[in-house]
Write a structure and sequence with these properties.
Layout (H helix, E strand, L loop, with lengths): L1 H19 L11 E7 L2 E2 L3 E6 L4 E5 L5 E3 L7 E9 L14 H12 L23 E4 L4 E8 L5
Parallel strand pairs: 1-8
Antiparallel strand pairs: 1-2, 1-5, 3-4, 3-6, 6-7
Amino acid sequence: MFQSLRWIGLVVLLGIASVGCSNGTSVKTVKVAGSVTLDGQPLADAEVHFIGPKHAGFGKTDSEGKFKLVTGAEPGENKIFFRQAGDEKFNNLAEGLDAGQAEAAAAAVRNSNAKVVKKSIPPEYTSSGTTKLVFNVPDGGSDSATFSLDSVKK
């Protein structure tokens, strides 16, 4: 009898400890999909990054410029930037991602059959520090996040 009481006590203590060890860093994410064009043409084979206050979302465009964020996005205002193969920063994909995000990003790259657009993404759209693009992600997510980039200054 005392043996079973010990096990019950141990289970209760472990349950309390696991609740107490939670650091409250869980961030709600929602699904986001959309499309990207550069000078009116679909932007193929480009990374799409959504940067919220507590979460970084990532996706990759297909040959039609359409994307779905693999890691979702945090509801609210997100900074948006893009990277493309050949861009110096493209090769350092895992920087700033946790292990799950890096694996999801690698899977998206492996599963892509997209062709690379010949035009380069203008520098003002290629980092979280330079981009002025923002997207307000609704609490329920979005399937219409559309971005039209211009390489020519107007």
